[in-house]
Structure formats: C-alpha cells, structure tokens
Specification:
The complex is a heterodimer.
Chain A: H1 6-24, H2 31-39, H3 42-56, H4 64-80, H5 85-109, H6 114-133, E1 137-139, H7 143-150, H8 159-177, H9 179-189, H10 191-196, H11 201-227, E2 229-231, H12 238-248, H13 260-279, H14 284-310
Antiparallel strand pairs in A: 1-2
Chain B: H1 2-18, E1 34-37, H2 44-60, E2 66-68, H3 76-89, E3 94-97, H4 106-114, E4 118-122, E5 134-137, H5 141-156, E6 160-166, H6 172-187, E7 194-201, H7 206-219, E8 223-228, H8 231-243, E9 251-254, H9 258-266, E10 273-275, H10 278-293, E11 304-306, E12 312-317, E13 325-328, E14 333-335, H11 340-343
Parallel strand pairs in B: 1-2, 1-3, 3-4, 4-5, 5-13, 6-7, 6-8, 8-9
Antiparallel strand pairs in B: 10-14, 11-12, 12-13
Helix pairs in contact in B: 2-10, 3-4, 5-6, 7-8
The chains are: A mainly alpha, B alpha/beta.
Chain lengths: 311, 345
C-alpha cells in the first residue's frame, strides 16, 4: 500500500482503533466479541460492498434498506401464514431482482436520476412492507432458520460472516480484475464518453441495481434469521450507515474512483469504533454523533487529501 | 374512582396475604455490575427510573459498577440489541431492560443468560418471556385496562367514540394494556356505549404522535377522547388539541407525567390521567436484580424478598404471559385538577 494513499491512512486509522480498543476494553479481543462486532451490522456491511460499485458507477441506491425490510417482511409474513420456510426464503430473495429491475428500468432505460428513483422506492418498498405485516411483529421461525442466523456455521463463525468474506473477495475481483469492473469505473468517470466508445452503459447500470437489490434482499433474510422476528420497520435508516461506510472508504461520491480495499478498511474502522464505544459504555447519542462526524470527514477528506498531495 | 380504590385494596390485601414465607433480605456490599437499559435516552420517566436505581444501588452498597446507557429513539430496537450483546461481552452481572424490541431481542437475551448475565425486565417485558429472568411490573396489566376504560367513561359521560394513540407497535407493555382495555370493554356491560374506533402509533416521537392525534380528529369527526397510554403520546396529543382549539370537543387521557401534564389538566385539555412512580420502579428493579445476581433469590415463583423502603414483594406467575414470572409493584395514581399540581413539583 502506498504511504500517501487514502487506503494507507485508513489502514493506520484501523490499527489505531484496534490498539485503542484493546487497551480500553479487555473484552475487545475475545473471539465472541469479534464475531458479535460483525454480526450486529452484518446486513449493512454486506450491502456496503455492492453499494461501493454502485457509487463508483456514479449512481446511488437509497432503496436498499427498504428492500431489506420488504424481503424480511415477506419472509416473516409467509412463515406466519404457514408457508414452508425454504419456500419463504426463496420468495424473500426474489424480492431483490424484482425491486432491482424496477429501479434499473426507471434509471437506465427511462433515464430518471438514481437519487430520485431510489428515494421514491425507499418510501415505496417500505410502504409495501408495512402494509404486509401491518403493525405486528412476526416471529416463531423454525429453529434451523434462527440457528443459521445466530449460531456458528463451520466452526464458531456464523454463515453471514462467511458470506461477507466471500462477497468481499468476489466483488473485489469483479471490480479490479475484470472487464465488467473496468466498465463500471469508466462509466462512473464519464458516462457520455463511455457511451460514445460503444459501452452498453444501460446494461452495466441494470446489472449493478439488480446486484444491489439482490444483496439487500439477502440482507433481509439474514436479518430475520439473526433476530428471529421481523416487523415493518426492519432496517429503517440502514442506507445512511451503508453510504457512510462506502464514502469513508475513499469512494468518490461523483463516481469513477474507489477501491474495495478502502471500503473494507472503512467497514472495519466503523465497526471497531462502534464496538469500542459500546464496550466503554458510551451512549447511543454520542455514538451517532461520532459516526456523523466521520461522514463529514469522509466526504471532505479525500478532496483535501488530493489538494494536499498536489499542492 | 371508588371502584378502583376497592380493586387496589383487594390487590394490596392479596399481596400481603401471599407474604407467608420469611422475606429474603439483601446482604449489602456485594459486587454486582449492573446496567440500566431503557427503551432510549432523553425522556423524563427513564431518567426518574435511573434516579431510583441509583438510590437503591447506594443503599445496597454495591461495590460493582452501575451504568445507565441507552440507544437513541430512532435506533431503539437495533440499539438495545447491540447494547445487550455488549453487556454480555462485558460479563455484566445483570441488565435491567425496558424492552422496546419485542421478541427481536429474545435470542440475544437467551445468549446473555447462557453467558451468565441475568436479564431483568421492567416497564416493558419480552413478550414471549424468552431469555428473561423475571419482569418487574409497574402495575397489574389487567387493571390498567379497567382504569383506562373508566377514564374514558368519565370523560365521555358514558357514551361515544374514542381512539388509542399508542407508542410503537411492538411495545409489549402498551399492547398488553390495550388488549386488557378491549377485554374490559367487551365484558362489562356498563361500557357498551363506548366505541373504540382506531388504534394508531406515534412511536414515542413527539412530532409523529402530534400528527397522528390530529389525523384521528380529521378521520373521526365524532371522536370524544384520545387515550394515549404513553407519556410521550399523551403530551403530544394534548398539545395538538390545545393548538387547534379542540379541547372542548376532544379530551385527552392516558398515562402521563404530572410535571408534563399539569398545564393541560388545569386548562381542561386532559382532565384525567394516570401513572405510577418511575423512581420506585427503578428502585424496586435494582433491589430485585441485586438479590437475583447475588443468588439470594433464585427467581422462582413464591419467593418473597424485601426491597428496602418499599417493603416486601413476592415473585408470581405473570398472568398475561404464559410461563413468564413477575414482581408486581402497583398501585398507581389517577391525577386530576385536585392533585396534579402537588405531584408536578
């Protein structure tokens, strides 16, 4: 890693949080705490990996947390009315491509900005979720579902954490080592130029929004399994944490720039920071405040960083 | 009100007759690490519970730590799940939880118990009782139903439409009270002319509750009473009616804090409401938790213990939740023009 790169600074910050946590909280380094640290935010961090690609492509998907909520509620509702859990999981996962396709058609084919489309869908999909489960909470899932969400899978590591590792590597390779990844970056840098050079811009964007919603729907199933119960507000507000993770990772909000390594480091920093603050009994309001400051830093930071390097 | 008095008297005598075994007394000065985890931070009742908990912890001379931490209102359920997980990691001896996550927290509470962290709920239990040692109930949930119905009765003059403005849809306590009230309304013929037209949720957010209250008035032109069994909702509803000049037409009632309600009670917008002492609830919860964590009580039905200045209590089966156990604090006070000013000081 280059000394002066944003990733280098993130790696330093990550080490700093690691050392500070280990010194301030004796429980920090226990295996169970390390697993909890990921588990408590697992849906967000899995979605953040795909969100990175979307933002590098100079788009945004604000609807992910509502797709997550809708998928979780579809699963909860179907189990509640007596549908077998495997079928309910498939139906919940299917929410992803359907929602993604709606987003993609409106953005890539009709040409409405993704900010507008996904903001509308943030409200729309959430509305459907709330209509589905009304004001109830739905639980009593089969034991194997909650075991998958809560217990170790292959050793003490839960299934969702394995998935995160697989997706982190897979999406890293996709972004940095494939033609598709290069197209994502080129389109993100300048969609007009990309179009004139013969790239199928609409197809790339469609793929990305399908991926984002599919990941969000998977997140919804993981959420339901982890907590063993869902309600209409499942995942509300997750999109802001997700976007924070991506931006702090050095991904440019204007597109064209960003690395998977940066996003993964940023995820680790935020999770460690939250965990450290929790273990040292810092209360919710201050935790939210600190994450808010991080977002400001992450948006201003890379810009100032560039100027300093050039200046 | 006299009927209520008799009912409370009955409950009190039942409780005292149940005290047969020698009451267990706390051995002060032991190290118990305690966490008081409210639904969220920033509203008066939870701060009052904190005051009571600190008072008890001081009396007990616990040499362990005491933390009062909570999530933000917007992040309540996820935040509580996170904080209970963290408390388990920290090997806290006991977490005192006012649950706002419904059964979503049950799995984490079970993990806490398995790791040796006791979970004592207060104010709002875990609906299924899973993962919970026991619940310190402020009042008998069934009797709240009667009190709420009686307050609607006196404010409507015995007939008319009313609606409920509750907290979050998953708040176990509010849901249990509303169910209890529906049961009372259905079973007792004297309430036959009262009509519950709707139940809406303001999620214990002032602005949302305010708008939901106005929404009710728009939707039901004949509405006479808004019953808000939440301290946030009742203030917001009373303010909404006052701001819109509707206090003559629509009265507000429910569960409120005298300090926050005094002006609305005096100007007639909310002529009658009820509540218990959150200071006492925090105090009793802390005594119960200390005794449980030190092994002085096991948390079994029938055990009797002494909770400092509040006297003796007995663990009993929770009539509202199958398989769950509770310690019943009770009783509660109905506030009106005559007593609200004194209580708000």
């Amino acid at each position: 890693m280059k000394l002066k790169s944003w990733e280098g600074m993130l790696a330093f910050l990550f080490l700093l949080t690691l050392v500070a946590n280990a010194m301030l909280a004796p429980e920090f380094l226990t295996l169970q705490n390390q697993i909890n640290l990921f588990q408590l935010s697992i849906e967000k961090i899995i979605i953040a990996l795909v969100m990175a690609l979307v933002i590098i492509n100079a788009e945004i998907d604000l609807s992910v947390s509502s797709v997550l909520g809708l998928a979780a509620c579809v699963f909860g509702y179907l189990v509640h009315i007596g549908v077998a859990a495997p079928l309910a999981i498939l139906a919940a996962l299917a929410v992803g491509p359907v929602a993604g396709l709606i987003n993609a058609v409106l953005i890539a084919r009709v040409g409405i900005p993704s900010l507008v489309v996904t903001l509308a869908m943030l409200i729309g999909f959430r509305g459907v979720a709330r209509i589905l489960v009304k004001d109830q909470s739905m639980g009593d899932f089969p034991q194997w579902v909650t075991d998958l969400g809560q217990k170790g899978f292959l050793g003490p590591i839960p299934l969702s954490l394995w998935l995160f590792v697989i997706f982190a590597v897979g999406l890293g390779v996709l972004l940095h080592r494939t033609g598709f990844g290069r197209q994502v970056v080129v389109i993100g840098t300048n969609a007009e130029v990309a179009r004139f050079s013969g790239l199928d811009v609409a197809r790339v964007k469609t793929t990305l929004f399908l991926m984002a919603s599919s990941m969000a729907a998977l997140g919804g199933v993981l959420y339901a399994a982890r907590l063993g119960s869902v309600r209409g507000d499942a995942g509300v507000g997750f999109e802001l944490d997700i976007i924070t993770m991506v931006l702090l990772g050095g991904v440019s909000i204007f597109g064209g720039k960003g690395s998977m390594a940066g996003v993964i480091l940023s995820i680790l920093i935020i999770l460690n920071l939250r965990n450290g603050m929790a273990l040292t009994n810092i209360t919710g309001h201050i935790q939210t405040g600190v994450i808010g400051i991080l977002l400001i830093v992450s948006v201003l930071g890379p810009n100032l960083w560039e100027r300093l390097r050039r200046g | 009100m006299t009927k209520l008095g008799i009912a409370l008297g009955l409950v009190a005598s039942l409780m005292s007759s149940a005290v047969m075994a020698e009451a267990v007394k706390a051995t002060p000065g032991q190290a118990v690490n305690m966490v008081l985890l409210p639904k969220f931070l920033g509203i008066l009742p939870f701060d009052q519970a904190d005051r009571g908990a600190q008072e008890a912890a001081k009396e007990l001379g616990s040499t362990g730590t005491y933390q009062y931490i909570g999530p933000t209102p917007e992040n309540s359920a996820a935040g509580q799940i996170e904080m209970l997980t963290t408390a388990t990691t920290q090997k806290q001896n006991v977490v005192m939880l006012s649950n706002n996550a419904g059964d979503q927290i049950a799995a984490v509470a079970e993990a806490a118990q398995a790791a040796g962290t006791k979970v004592v709920t207060w104010d709002s239990p875990i609906p299924s009782g899973k993962g919970e040692s026991l619940f310190v109930a402020q009042v008998d949930f069934g009797s709240i139903g009667t009190v709420m119905a009686d307050m609607v009765m006196s404010m409507t003059g015995g007939a008319g439409e009313f609606a409920v403005l509750s907290a979050s849809p998953d708040a176990a306590n509010q849901n249990a009270w509303i169910e209890a009230m529906k049961k009372v309304l259905a079973e007792d013929a004297k309430y036959k002319d009262l009509k519950l037209v709707d139940v809406v949720y303001g999620n214990d957010q002032s602005e949302e509750s305010y708008n939901k209250a106005l929404g009710l008035v728009d939707k039901y032109p004949d509405l006479k009473v808004i019953m808000a069994p939440t301290t946030v909702g009742i203030v917001a509803a009373a303010k909404a009616m006052q701001d819109e000049g509707l206090c003559e037409k629509v009265k507000v009632s429910g569960l409120g804090l005298p300090a926050e309600m005094v002006s609305y009670t005096m100007n007639g917008c909310a002529p009658e409401f009820a509540l218990w002492s959150f200071v006492d609830l925090g105090y009793l919860t802390t005594y119960t938790s200390y005794l449980l964590a030190t092994g002085a009580i096991k948390g079994e039905v029938g055990e009797t213990f002494t909770a400092g200045r509040m006297g003796d209590f007995t663990i009993e089966a929770d009539p509202g939740r199958e398989g769950a156990k509770r310690v019943l604090m009770g009783p509660f006070t109905v506030y009106n023009k005559d007593n609200v000013e004194a209580a708000s000081k």
